[in-house]
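anyone seen this seq b4? input:
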Amino acid sequence: MADLVKAGKVRWIGLSEAGAQTIERAHKVHPVSALQSEYSLWTRDVDTDGILATCERLGIGLVPYSPLGRGFLTGAIRSPEDFEADDFRRTNPRFMGENFARNLALVDTVRALAAARGCTPAQLALAWVLARGPQVVPIPGTRRIENLDENLGALEVRLDAAELAEIDAIFPAGAASGTRYAEHVMPMLAR
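predicted toks r here
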């Protein structure tokens, strides 16, 4: 990839779902511009594995995908029956059985915090991600213009240190029940 940059065929290099050591090794070969990884209130590996700190130190942008927890953190999903028959979330461990019920309780805390702040749960969840640093630029999936407008409203939600601490106390790293993907997929995310 570094040769492609030198040849003018590629401008920047980005990585996806890389661990801190992989980022370090790649950055020594050629500067990495961005890292795309899942990151949200309920997927905090980027914090706990030192990935965010590595990106900050090396000046690498973080582009979190699924910053709304695959839609769950919006508060709109109340039952597994809310998914279409072919929706992959029906087979995602976080959306199944007891995990669904436990995670719904977490989302209800986000709903309450958002209501107290006068914003939507989606806006609060996005504001939390945005508060992680200026190099963090989430990419929420959006299918409807009203969701886009709601997501943009997160830019107006400013969380201070006390509010961030409160959110982290209520929804700490590792609080979500179930793995990000089915067990047979998780090894593909090895960092």
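The radius of gyration is 17 Å. The mean pLDDT is 90. kinda curious what u guys think
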